[in-house]
Amino acid sequence: MTDSRTAQNIADQLNELPPSSAVSLQMSVDNYLDVMRGVLDLFANRRDMDIIYVTATISFEAIKRVLQALDIDTSRVYFVDCISHIMMGASAAQHDEHTTLVESPTMLENLMLKVEYLIRQSQSPNKLVVIDSINSLAIHNNNWILSEFLHILVSGLRAREAYTIILSVEEHSTPEINNMVNLVCDQGIRVDKGGGSP
Amino acid sequence: MMVQRTGDRERCITGIEGLDTILYGGIPRANTILLTGSCGTGKTSLALEFLIHGALKGENSLFISVTENSEKLLANIIPYKFFDKGLVKSGKLVLVDLPVMYERLGLTKAELSMEEIDLLVAAITDLVKELETKRLVMDSITSVCYKLKTSEKIRDFILKLSKALSDADCTSILVSEMAGQSFSYSMFGVEEAIADGIVYMANMERRGDLLRTLQVIKMRGTMHSRAKYVLDLTPVGVLLVPLLKGGSAGT
Question: Which domains are present in chain B?
Answer without folding.
Answer: 15-77+125-242 (3.40.50.300)
